[in-house]
Amino acid sequence: MRRVWAICSKELQMYFYSPVAYVAFAFYIVLSSFFFYVNFVVGQPPIVDARYVVGNTTFIYLFIIPLLTMRLVADEFRQGTDELLLTSPAGISEIVLGKYLSAFIVQIGLVAVSLIYPLIMSAFGELDKPILWLSYLSMFLLGCAMMAIGLFASSLTNNQMVAGIAGFVILLLLWLLDWLGDAFGGKLKDWIGQFSLTSHMANLQKGVLHGGDIVFYITLAAMFIVLSIQVLERKRWR
Amino acid sequence: MNKWIRGTNATVLSIAVIGIFIILTIFLHSLKGFQLDLTKNKSYTLSEQTVTTLKNLNQDIHIIAFTNVGQSTDDFLTKQVTDLAEEYKKQSSKITFDQYDMLKQPSMAKQYGVDQSGTLVFELGDKKKNINFYEMFNGQQDGSYTFSGEEKFTQAINNLTSTEKHVVYVLSGHQEYPLSAMTILNNSLQSENYDVKELNLYREGEIPDDASMLLLLGPQNDLNDKETELINTYLQNKGKIYIALGFNKDMATKWKNIDSIMNTFGIQDQHAVAIEAKQTSLFDPLTIIPEYGSHDITNKLSDYNLITMLSLAVSLNADESKTDWTKSLLLKTTDKAYGETDINLLTQSKTKQDDQDIKGPLNLGYAIENKDKKPKAVILGGSTFLLDQDIQNQGNKDFALNSIGWLQEQKDQVTIRPREGAAIQQAVITPSQANTIFLGTVIVLPLLFLIIGGIIWWRRRRG
């Protein structure tokens, strides 16, 4: 655990000592603020409901999360530090978990920043608290799963750009499963839809805590973390 | 060799993990009831009536929403409707739900004869029932609106699946409440497959053969002898009656015939108006929140803690010597209440308990069964709870519909019906507030992050 934490804090330093993270955060805030403004202020009538924020913010994740995760493992390969890392006393699982933990903490930051929108809304009317918190929980869980996917993409290649694009493509595919299901209709639509990244947010955003939805995001994240470990494991023995 | 084994291991493990994920997702998806509704009004916990309806559903129902994606208000309404449809689908495997965009798939709309976006079609075989989204949203005075989708959904399903229709006649000609003052009751009855008609016995001269029940709601004048004769003959046969008395200052002297009909069942009108001495800031002494007796009509209401509110209710008494009828007490006041017999004093808004008055607890409603345990009559001392302005309060509507459902031996209609959703909150934003929001969120906040990033970059470059 100490090694996991050491790797995590090193990663966090890399995030926050480089201007890239701040540019990414600023980009994220500009976009989500703009969507919020258009929906809440320009959209008529303005409806005091946190769910409007969530839908748009999670859409921005699709672009921002590959940006934030692409560096995680790929950069080690590029700089040649992977050899150092892979031969260090820390196990591969610890390395991957440490890197994921840093992404997880960044995700908490992303969600926390967007709490400013419901805060503004609450000045104009009373928000339905369970809907607000469950919507934000859905946003957080989705982000955590997406971070794991980004981490996996980053472990595939030694080029940051390729990692970013690969992450985006995987996320986009999982994101569009819903839409793909619609094209088929009927039972097949239901079957495909349950694997979609966004379909499990619906219940939480309604204010309904459904165990299956939460487990879905956790297992999705866990699956990609294990896959990342396996990819690195293979690299070590090659 | 070692390398090869380790490589295979990694591949097998990866495939296993993916397999576990897929199986777990499918398994958890199949667990429908594994959820906790945390919304304020329990908006996504379907009511008892809906759950029963869906449980008894043995035919496939296809729900189709025709929408027009992209209009902000409409989107909000659409979301509420489609979320609810998904909840129905979750509850019953007989329900399928599809949504079509009117603009992208006009041929589907044409096939269903829908020409307006925001239309929901319920389809059972050849039978169809359309509901416009706007019918499910009730406007409030402050400009917001509440969602009554569940009621409409369940009614549509009931209408499609039910084959029987009961005709009930509301008596008129004695200054009863007109149907126009009870539109909510009327609509609810119609959607539970009752045909509600007005009947003026003066004009018609007979009670139609298809009458499955007579309703006498809030009469101000007595029935005449001929009418009473017709009603008595009807009741001696298969007829059923629902009486909800209305207050009138001359009730003690002029309600001879109404009293005699009630007397047939052993119910006596005490000609006293119930006064509840225990006042609250919400209610005046004439508004009574009765306690429920134990009966099919009221059991579920007391389980759910839903109260019925009557005002200007007349106290009743059962004559236990008439053993032909089983009289079950439905509503009674607390023992602190009393029945004011001096109506003239009451009309001048002066009332004080004296020796003449009837001591509480007062009985305000009875359900009557014949010797064969068949429902025959419901007699209530008050009727204001049926009016449009009162019926939406608390359990009033359920009490009204349950008692009619019980009288008609409709077991699944003695239940708790869907509540309305919470009102949608709308904000009023002034132009200056809009500017502040724009400046604060779109400009200042991101700039702040850029500046922090810039400072760190600059310091590190120097350092």
What would you note in describing this structure?
The complex is a heterodimer of chains A (238) and B (463). Chain A is mostly helical. Chain A is 81% helix and 1% strand. Chain A has helices at 2-17, 19-42, 51-69, 74-79, 82-86, 92-113, 116-122, 129-156, 160-175, 177-184, 186-193, 201-206, 211-237; one strand spanning 208-210. In chain A, α2 (19-42) packs antiparallel against α3 (51-69) and α6 runs antiparallel to α8 (129-156). Chain A is globular, with a radius of gyration of 19 Å. The two termini of chain A are 27 Å apart. With 463 residues, chain B is α/β, with parallel strands linked by helices. In chain B, 38% of the residues lie in helices and 23% in strands. Chain B is built from 15 helices and 21 strands. In chain B, the strands form 5 sheets. In chain B, strands 9-8-10-11-21-20-17-14 form an 8-stranded mixed β-sheet. Chain B has a 4-stranded mixed β-sheet with strand order 3-2-4-5. In chain B, β8 (166-172), α6 (183-191) and β9 (194-200) form a beta-alpha-beta unit. In chain B, α2 runs parallel beside α5 and α11 runs antiparallel to α14 (396-407). The two termini of chain B are 51 Å apart. The chains are: A mainly alpha (238), B alpha/beta (463). At the A-B interface, α2, α7, α8, α12 and β1 of A face α1, β1, α3 and α15 of B. β1 of chain A pairs antiparallel with β1 of chain B, so a sheet runs across the interface. Chain A: It is found in: Cell membrane. Chain A: Its main location: membrane. Chain A: The chain crosses the membrane at residues 20-40, 52-74, 95-120, 132-154, 161-181, 214-232.
